């Protein structure tokens, strides 16, 4: 019972581990504005880039709608050329933006054919043109023809999830998505919403520069030490340029009760330009090509006014721009660009650089900004590493070298895949299914965040107090607590962006609102009235958290009180110290003090957890002086305590010396210094020293306990905060559920489309294959002309139906058509298959009969030569009968099949031949297995022979001498040795288990039995004389 329980538990555990491994894969999406790269980690596949349907390692970030269908990737890009208004590209910059945002207006200038309308919350929504959504035979189009940016990006992420699951061959939900470091709070929340629409569990929004730095460091962890090594990453992507300075070093972190050393990458400085990227180069080059075409005067139409023609030129401009990175000139050409007129023109790299000179002049500024904010110089930077497709332009590399003073620029990482691989490493680290070597990442908050609240003193006007919550370049994740210690009534405060004067005016305008949240606290007054009578207020504490994604949240608010313990008599020295301390410090704790949360983890402690009061307008000089005096008094008191401690140590040392000199004398005179009894065998001196040390420590601890005052009782009253988001209103719960439902319907529609296409392809393939086979020789021989004509008619009718089918036909209709054709051709296909496979089957039967016949003859000879036969007469007869019957059946059916026309149903079937082969094989295997387990009967011994316990056979001679004879002498020994044996008692009869063991031994080879028995006999008789040992070595 217990054994079966263990087996069941093991099977359940194995099933659990199997199902867990099936769902342990994680993924990352490096979501750029132009392309996305997807990476996965699953058991047995460490950090692999996912291939899309076209087997490419990067996929265009575009979604298109046409013919009542949704398209992604290259297919959507083709639609973008023909129907630009129905394809949506470069969406990431529109996340978290309202319609009147400068970024949205700039987007409309670049892509004027999109119809942008405001949503209920004021964000961007695209109105899709109905004209190109439906085909002539289509059903009503999508129920919702307005999609928000978050929904469109949710569709892209949904497609990324679909590709990753197909590549990993298992479902995936956990993901890390990369975002630019300059994304603000609204943009990050919008990306989080898009992931929710896609059905993904977001582990982290990781800054793409940090992901690149992590990927770079993971493969070079052995190169880092305790001294920071600084690197600069220059990333020019499709729409922006980011320069990041990071430091790598080994740091010690505490994990539970032990300390370990791990590498860490810390973001030191970031500079960026949100509009400097490859897209702007491509758009300017597109306009240049359009002007060249208009200058050729091939048509009177203006190419700028034709959306499709401009879409073709945009695609060609991107291709030529990439070619010019490696060549100085190239031809741009587009067939049938406008009014059936082709376009071809020679362009040079110099022309591209001249038309983009103002953009090239901005390359150096992000480098300067990153150095400035990190307070570093280029001399401290070990290497400059290039990232992004824009850095492939020779002129850009030249300007980077000039700005950094480096002739050699680092190109040691994959510019396309580094961010995706770094993010998927972080995903594996954050998931619970993998053990990953730790590589800590300390990201930085680019925009300072502050808290504003109002305070009014008696006789003074209302004053607005500002406290910095998270400063510029503060590391995160991190928790902080802000204390409001002057408020006893219900109040409110605002969370806003801090000083953004270091940003350009254009970048500041990109923030729809500098106000983030308004928080109203209700219940402060009630809590104060409840606890103020018997407890001291310690203020209202608001607990803030900036998580791994850089999103700020208010975890909780509580009103804290301390209730004094029962009073105790204080010593004179303690009273004097408290009086001095109160005189210098008082109780002037500053309002709105910000400090790191004590509840944060080790990561938070390393994130710069010093007490910070970032106030610039509410600290008086008098307060500073009082604080100085208080600190000075505390230092003096600390020094006095240290002096007392040293004196005590010196006194104790002197006493130890005296004891060593007079170790034989008793020390009963000294109070509280009498040593306790120790172990006598360890020496009197050592026992006395140990005991004195224990007594001294105990006395010291008792003194400390006496001095330590009792702790006050802390009372925490939860305050319910009411938060109102000010920068970007989130959609309601109902709206979120509706959007998820819409995306699920579109996903189901895509899956149905794939199934419909598969059914269509299966029917089409069968028709083409069958029509071709009807003219092949094997099928013509196996069918009549009448039968072939009938099949051709059915195939032609099915082909016509297929040509007339459209999207209105269902999957079942295609399956029914295919089943009808398979039923009609089944008889012909079976005849051809039988005729083609029969010769091989007959050859296999012939070989089996020959083998069985030889085996039968061997069995026959064996049974005639042995007295003890392994087989019975019935078994031998049965084998003989089976052979004869099979030969007769073979002969009869081969003759009948030859007389049967190929167009008729075969008489001799391949399956019948296989049955005969299996019957012969089964009978032969049975007899062979029986021979392996056969044990011959033991021979009957003569009456004048007796067997001794040592397996000796004693033979009585006429002279009454006893002769020892071995059945099989061991190698290197005499067969017999003369001597006289003492009488030995007969052993008891062997048990069933011993008989079984003997039978198993009988099956062993002779040499193995000899060796094994010889060893056992030698071991058991090792105490006898040498001559007797020789007698004992007898084989069984």
TrEMBL record:
<keyword id="KW-0547">Nucleotide-binding</keyword>
<dbReference type="Pfam" id="PF00012">
    <property type="entry name" value="HSP70"/>
</dbReference>
<feature type="signal peptide">
    <location>
        <begin position="1"/>
        <end position="23"/>
    </location>
</feature>
<feature type="compositionally biased region" description="Basic and acidic residues">
    <location>
        <begin position="587"/>
        <end position="719"/>
    </location>
</feature>
<keyword id="KW-0732">Signal</keyword>
<dbReference type="GO" id="GO:0005788">
    <property type="term" value="C:endoplasmic reticulum lumen"/>
</dbReference>
<protein>
    <recommendedName>
        <fullName>Hypoxia up-regulated protein 1</fullName>
    </recommendedName>
</protein>
<dbReference type="GO" id="GO:0034663">
    <property type="term" value="C:endoplasmic reticulum chaperone complex"/>
</dbReference>
<dbReference type="InterPro" id="IPR018181">
    <property type="entry name" value="Heat_shock_70_CS"/>
</dbReference>
<dbReference type="InterPro" id="IPR029047">
    <property type="entry name" value="HSP70_peptide-bd_sf"/>
</dbReference>
<keyword id="KW-0256">Endoplasmic reticulum</keyword>
<dbReference type="GO" id="GO:0140662">
    <property type="term" value="F:ATP-dependent protein folding chaperone"/>
</dbReference>
<dbReference type="GO" id="GO:0030968">
    <property type="term" value="P:endoplasmic reticulum unfolded protein response"/>
</dbReference>
<keyword id="KW-0143">Chaperone</keyword>
<feature type="compositionally biased region" description="Basic and acidic residues">
    <location>
        <begin position="993"/>
        <end position="1036"/>
    </location>
</feature>
<dbReference type="GO" id="GO:0005524">
    <property type="term" value="F:ATP binding"/>
</dbReference>
<feature type="region of interest" description="Disordered">
    <location>
        <begin position="583"/>
        <end position="733"/>
    </location>
</feature>
<dbReference type="InterPro" id="IPR029048">
    <property type="entry name" value="HSP70_C_sf"/>
</dbReference>
<keyword id="KW-0067">ATP-binding</keyword>
<dbReference type="InterPro" id="IPR013126">
    <property type="entry name" value="Hsp_70_fam"/>
</dbReference>
<dbReference type="InterPro" id="IPR043129">
    <property type="entry name" value="ATPase_NBD"/>
</dbReference>
<feature type="region of interest" description="Disordered">
    <location>
        <begin position="937"/>
        <end position="1036"/>
    </location>
</feature>
<comment type="similarity">
    <text>Belongs to the heat shock protein 70 family.</text>
</comment>
<feature type="compositionally biased region" description="Polar residues">
    <location>
        <begin position="947"/>
        <end position="961"/>
    </location>
</feature>
